[in-house]
Amino acid sequence: MTSDAQHPVRVVQLGGLMPFVREWLAERYAAPERADLADPAGVEVAVVGGGAAVGPAEMDALPGLRAIVNFGVGYDNVDVAEARRRGIVVSNTPDVLTDAVADLAVLLVGDVLRGVSAADRFVRSGAWARGEKPPLTRDVRGSVVGVLGLGRIGTAAAQRLEAFGAEIHYHSRSPKDVAWTYHPTPVELAAASDVLVVLTPGGAGTEKLVDAAVLDALGPDGYLVNVARGSVVDEDALVAALEEGRLAGAGLDVFAHEPHVPQALLGRDDVVLLPHVGSATTQTREAMARLVLDNVDAFLERGELVTPVR
Ligand code: 8YV
Prior knowledge:
By secondary structure, the chain is an alpha/beta fold. The chain has 2 domains: about 100 residues, Rossmann fold (3-Layer(aba) Sandwich); about 180 residues, NAD(P)-binding Rossmann-like Domain (Rossmann fold). It is built from 11 helices and 11 strands. The strands form 2 sheets. A 7-stranded parallel beta sheet has the order 7-6-5-8-9-10-11, with helices on both faces. Helix 9 links the parallel strand 9 and strand 10. Helix 4 packs across helix 6 and helix 7 packs parallel to helix 8. The chain is elongated, with a radius of gyration of 22 Å. The chain starts with 10 loop residues before the first strand and ends in an 8-residue tail after the last helix. The chain binds 2-keto-D-gluconic acid. The site of 2-keto-D-gluconic acid has 11 residues, from loops.
C-alpha cells in the first residue's frame, strides 16, 4: 500500500522500533519513518519505541498529531504533560510484557545470588580445567527480596520469587492489599533486604530514587537488581559502592545512558550486565506489536486508544 492524494499519510514512525514492527506499520498504514515523511500535515498518529524521545520539538513538527502510540509499557520517553496540554493522547503496552519482564527480574536475582554468569566465565576461562574451585554463592531460599515498586511487574516478580522461597518485602507509594511486608521508604526497604529489585516506572518522579543512602542501607552483603529504568538508580553511586566493597553485586538490564555501560562495570565479576532485554522474547515483542496496531486501528477508526496512559 502506498499513500497518495486519496490516502494521505496518517501514521508516522518516530524511531526506536524493531524491523518487524516497522514492516508491519509500513504494510498496514504505509507509515513512513520521520525522515521519509514528505508532508507532515495529515499525520494524526505517531508510533515510537525503544525509548526514543517525543517532546515539544517532535510535536511541533507534526501539527496534526492527535495520538502518540508507544511501543513499551514505560513511557518516560514521551513528554506526556506536554502532549496532554496539546490535546494529544498517549498509549503504552501494559500487561503483555508483565510475565517476560518479571521472569527476567527473577533470573537476574538468581544469577547475582548464584553467580551463574560468573561461573560461566569461570569455565570458559579454563579456570575449572586448571583445577581451580569457583566461590560458594548464596541461596535464594531464605533471602529477603525487597521489591521497589509493587505494580503489575513487581507483583508478578514477587509471586515468582516466593516460589523460590524468598521472603518478600516491598515499598510503593502506599501499602497494597498483600501479605508481604511494607516499608514506608526505599531506605527502610533496602535496610531490610538482601536483594533490592527495582521495578518502578522511570521519569522525573523516580529519578535517582536508589541513591547512595539506599545502597548503603542495602549494605556490603546486599545486591541490587534493576530491570526498570537506569534513571531510577544513581549510577555513579552504584559504581562507587561496588568499587568500595559497600555492595555485594548487581544485576542490571537497564542503564542511565543506554547503550553506554560504565567502563568500571565491564571488568567486574560481581555484576551481570544485560542489554535491556526484559521484554525481548519473540512472543512478547509480537504481543506488544499487536497491541500497538490495536491502538493505532482504534484511534484511526473511532478516535480512541485501547490502552491509554491516564
Ligand atoms: C522495551 C521497555 O525495551 O516496555 C518497556 O518499557 O523498556 C521494553 O519493553 C522497549 O520499550 C522496546 O521499545
